[in-house]
Amino acid sequence: MSLTISHLSVFNNHSENDNNILIDDFSVSVDKGTVLTLMGPSGSGKSTLLSIIAGFVSPDFHYTGEILLNQKRIGSEKPENRNIGILFQDDLLFPHLSVCENLMVALPNSIKGKLRREIALQTLQQINLQHLADRSTLQISGGQKARVSVMRLLLAEPHAVLLDEPFSKLDKSLRSEFRDWLFTELKKRNLPTILVTHDNEDCPIGQTTLHWPWHKEETLDA
Ligand SMILES: Nc1ncnc2c1ncn2[C@@H]1O[C@H](COP(=O)(O)OP(=O)(O)OP(=O)(O)O)[C@@H](O)[C@H]1O
């Protein structure tokens, strides 16, 4: 599995000056089981890049270039057909559903009936949270929410993962434990991953970190 971005340029449709380019000719390939980290100042276009890869392009932007997942162009696919999992800093668990139901909604429609709850419960068991299955997500801690959000993302069997500051709401002690656990889970599944962060400590050791904004003259091996 690999995620490739080829000659991506992103333009702001409403820029007041001539310099309407947010991302200038960015190309990178992220291989299976590796993490590319993007670090850079606020407003430099990191989240916009992730949203374009995931298929949620704001009408305020347009782009040129290609996005390929496993060598297949996905730029014209709807977000739900892209097989890309995305995790934001604000976990988006549904507050009106229980922890278990939040996991069940991620399962493919081909899994029916009681099996859906069974799989959700097994998933909770893997993260030692089975006792919280029927709680509202409003009644669990930030760290527990973070783990449930990751498992929900993985249940959808993505082919690539995008992480937009997923650790920023966690306190320091939880943060490093959760980070290590998350990178292990992603590696186990051989998923290509792009991580956006402000914190140097989040960058996984031995992997590529790219300082953003992107400058065309840089070369990169990810
Ligand atoms: N919908 C929008 N319409 C117009 N401009 C936008 C829109 N969303 C973001 N921007 C602008 O585009 C630029 C890039 O924003 P983006 O959120 O991608 O940056 P970022 O690097 O992820 O920042 P942060 O680290 O603060 O999340 C910023 O200048 C921002 O103000």
Automatic annotation (TrEMBL):
Keywords: ATP-binding, Nucleotide-binding, Transport. Pfam families: ABC_tran. The gene is ynjD. PROSITE patterns: ABC_TRANSPORTER_2. This is ABC transporter ATP-binding protein. SUPFAM superfamilies: P-loop containing nucleoside triphosphate hydrolases. GO terms for molecular function: ATP binding. The keyword Zinc does not apply. Residues 5-222 form the ABC transporter domain. It comes from Psychromonas marina. Transmembrane segments: none annotated.
